[in-house]
Amino acid sequence: MAPTFPAFLCSLLLCAAGVFGQAYDPSKQLSVGIILFPGFQPLDVIGPLDIIMMLSASHNVSLAMIGKEKGPVRGPSPPRRNEPPTAYPVQGPSVVATHTFADAPRLDILLVPGGMGLRVLNENNDTWIPDFIASRFDELQYLLSVCTGAAALAQSGVLKGRRATTNKASWAWATQFGNGVNWVPTARWTEDGNVWTSSGVSAGIDMTYAFFKKLMGVAAANRIMNAIEYTPHVNEHWDPFSVVHKVPGADASRPLGECVGPAGFEFECS
Ligand SMILES: *[C@@H]1O[C@H](CO)[C@@H](O)[C@H](O)[C@H]1NC(C)=O
Ligand SMILES: *[C@@H]1O[C@H](CO)[C@@H](O)[C@H](O)[C@H]1NC(C)=O
């Protein structure tokens, strides 16, 4: 496949000059890892994964699905303490972990999804995810979380002094973790240095679009949005769910609706 825009522009050292932000280098393979745990929220994983899959048609990307153990990682959450096991009887599906935290390859990008299973891990004092994040943070170009995955980032210590957001329906639970985290109550997603965090579930798709737009360029990112026929929210400050879920600090004076349309096209909303 022909490399996309950065190839000749980078030869002019524009990329090195930071004109396009942290640009993707088409001569190198981009190593992406996604964390899996029993009780992950399916769309937190599958939404960004769909975009990464599409991207790999034109970009040299490798993917490691990283679990505590190799093999199928169940979608349904194990029972939580003091709660019946049938909270979500139809949660699923299982996704296969190709690697464990012990044998995962070098990573450029790590994405941490959320889901009820994170609470179970926490109740069992199982810190493998925050431990893995902390151990790999220095080698990463970017760390991303979707939904309550931000709680694991906070636990790992990497959010100290950074802006972050999380699922507004789970705000109280997720924001109890970490020290010195600047939790942003009104954000569809946040970007602070090389750490990106998104609000709940579907917000991960909007964040992933914004992220790859920055990394790979507008044209490549827009092509994927239009191929999957998704109309992304492009305003990181649009966050009606902070109002819906009554998050402290939510700004109820902001419009709940937002105009969206196909990426890269002019459109009007009535
Ligand atoms: C992707 O990059 C790897 C490592 O640099 C290389 O071995 C492989 O041939 C590349 N694949 C493609 C399709 O360019
Ligand atoms: C987790 O740690 C807390 C605090 O040390 C302890 O009270 C609790 O019993 C532990 N839970 C499990 C399942 O080990």
Automatic annotation (TrEMBL):
Coiled-coil stretches, from where to where?
A: none
**Designated name of the protein:** Class I glutamine amidotransferase-like protein
Leader sequence segment:
1-21
* Entries under InterPro entries matching the protein: Class_I_gatase-like (IPR029062), DJ-1/PfpI (IPR002818), INH-QAR (IPR052158)
Per the record, which residues fall in region Disordered?
68-89
Gene3D superfamilies in the cross-refs? 3.40.50.880
User: Which ranges does the record mark as transmembrane?
Assistant: none
Provide the DJ-1/PfpI domain boundaries.
Answer: 31-212
Which keywords describe this protein according to UniProt? Answer: Glutamine amidotransferase, Signal
